[in-house]
What we know:
single chain; mainly alpha; elongated; 2 strands
Amino acid sequence: xxxxxxITGIIGSIICAIGDFFLYRCQGTDSxxxxxxxxxxxxxxxxxxxxxxxxGALASISIPxxxxxxxxxxHQIALQNKALGIAYFIVMSIGAMGGVGFHLNACFMPLxxxxxxxxxxxxxxVEDVYSIMSKATGxxxxxxxxxxxxxNSIWVWIVIFSGxxxxxxxxxxxxxxxxxxxxxxxxxxxxxxxxxxxxLTNTLGLGGIAVIALxxxx
Length: 218
């Protein structure tokens, strides 16, 4: 069963990466941050609404799928340390479920912006809505990102280097934080990564956890 979970986790991360592509591809190199808070992308206006709708739909499908990769990894930890495995399962469950809301919120904002501007609303109106949404979801979004990228990666490093999960140490490179750092470095070296969204590297890193779980089962 857990072998099926890791395959599903890998597939889920790829689907989510595709969703990220639709969400962020409008930004590119010619988009600039506008408004007083500089949180609105100028290219949102000309981007097709379907991009954000597709992205939200793919995220809703893919996040529960890549979550199963976490479940499989939690099982591998629990084989040697039950308490640590259960703790990982609980923390990553919180992170994954928060990820759905985090992604949908990111998709809603461009759609709200397009609707307000289309109906002759002002940029100030958009920023007011953005401010309200940020107050409502900001803490949850921060915790979700912290758990999925940082806590997740550090936890994996600990169980690998301590020998709780028996895989080569090089597997530590497949963690979300390492994918994030790699993406940042690539974005500095190539314009391709301004078009091919940096967020993709985070998502693929989540699938890396499932790969590590798969290797540990062999």
